[in-house]
Amino acid sequence: MTAATTDSAVREFYGSFINGEEVGESAASTFETRNPANGQVLTVIQEGGQALVDQAVANSRAAFPAWRDLPGVEKGRILLAISRKILENKDLLVTLESLDNGKSQMDATFDVITAARYFEYYAGMADKLGGETIPLPGTHISYTRPEPFGVTAHIVPWNAAFQQAARGVAPALAAGNTAVVKPAEDTSISTLVMARLALEAGLPAGVFNVVTGLGSTTGAALVSHPQVSRITFTGSVPTGQAIMRAAAEHLNPLTLELGGKAPNIIFEDADLKAAIPGSLMAININAGQVCAAGSRLLVHRSLHDEVVEGLVALNRQVKLGPAASGSSMGAITTAAQYAKIQEYLEIGKAEGARAVIGGSAATDGELAQGQFIQPTIFTGVDNSMRIAQEEIFGPVLSVIPFDSEEDAVRIANDTKYGLTAGLWTRDLGRAHRVAAQIEAGQVTVNDFFAGGVQAPFGGYKNSGFGREKGTHALSEYLQTKTVSIKL
């Protein structure tokens, strides 16, 4: 098969990257991926399957002892070199992410720069992984040693492939583990390029392997592999549950970052000049394809109409289209997700909500060739509606009025998810009080996406468990050994 793309940045075929080499140039089993912005075949990807998973894990296992024993300062220097290599190739990577994911140039650029920052941040942590000395009675001394697990498996989602691969791989390597990554089948290209750039930056072959393929075959083979020692997954709740069941077979520890239905609360004393654009960004970033998106906007009833009017005015300025067109919002990455969002738009209308802007796919002109959704705002939403309870994963905002602080907290927590939340208020006491009551792993005040790579990130309830980012991520990739000595 030959890809129909005319963009020279994308090759016609991509195979898995194992032990420093691309494998599978003559693969019998392959699949096509398409550019979400125009529907054209972008490239052909290898279906790795069990054999290549076995090969990747074996190579990672063989590379583990030397990487584990490499001094932390040397690991850090290599990770820093990877960061620099990513930035040197920023333009190429932004182009690849835009074509493969359908992202706007702004969103793709953010992902690439953030990925580089992960490697930079954990480069500085690699030589600072000390234990503690524990006083014991009598003539004994006890101390702890943080030690890596071995081979870590990373199942990466399609919505932010490059950034999220770095989010898991960088701390895993800094902690002394090796990594096997299975990128989403729809968005494999940039992760393969990342592995190649890491090799060029000095990372030993076998430390970072990538196996491409479908989740039901290649992904399932990886998470159930007996020589994998730890698993990290970002994606849907049902898939996370399936991975938990597979991990139970070998008692593998997990980090799961699953769905979200984040509340974003505008109190009556909020600065609307910041809250309105901030709240729109919270849902429209990456065309709403973000687990942490602020998809439920809780607005004090006294401000409801003013806030909605401001949101609609700003939403009219959103420009849909491919990255090359200078768009501010890109396409929906997968055909299945494109169909799912349209289904939820109809569900919202049937439930009695009103789409004050948007409410359908965007099919004017060249947009008809791609998978574009009009940024949508629903009013008249009750928190019991499906559009308020279920993750839509698109640029669809549900506006819900509230009457008191207690009411806002109750509505915010009335969901099975608990990934992120935001609140807008000038009252510092209220900010601390409400943040303490919100059932979510991350709460941001007078902003929505804040924290950077240094701040731990993860969920409560059905949004998963474990933490990524910051020093907390390092602890996820380390196990503790206690040594006690009688003197």
From TrEMBL:
<dbReference type="InterPro" id="IPR016161">
    <property type="entry name" value="Ald_DH/histidinol_DH"/>
</dbReference>
<comment type="similarity">
    <text>Belongs to the aldehyde dehydrogenase family.</text>
</comment>
<keyword id="KW-0560">Oxidoreductase</keyword>
<dbReference type="InterPro" id="IPR015590">
    <property type="entry name" value="Aldehyde_DH_dom"/>
</dbReference>
<dbReference type="InterPro" id="IPR016162">
    <property type="entry name" value="Ald_DH_N"/>
</dbReference>
<feature type="domain" description="Aldehyde dehydrogenase">
    <location>
        <begin position="27"/>
        <end position="483"/>
    </location>
</feature>
<dbReference type="InterPro" id="IPR016163">
    <property type="entry name" value="Ald_DH_C"/>
</dbReference>
<dbReference type="Pfam" id="PF00171">
    <property type="entry name" value="Aldedh"/>
</dbReference>
<dbReference type="GO" id="GO:0016620">
    <property type="term" value="F:oxidoreductase activity, acting on the aldehyde or oxo group of donors, NAD or NADP as acceptor"/>
</dbReference>
<dbReference type="InterPro" id="IPR029510">
    <property type="entry name" value="Ald_DH_CS_GLU"/>
</dbReference>
<protein>
    <submittedName>
        <fullName>Aldehyde dehydrogenase family protein</fullName>
    </submittedName>
</protein>
<feature type="active site">
    <location>
        <position position="257"/>
    </location>
</feature>
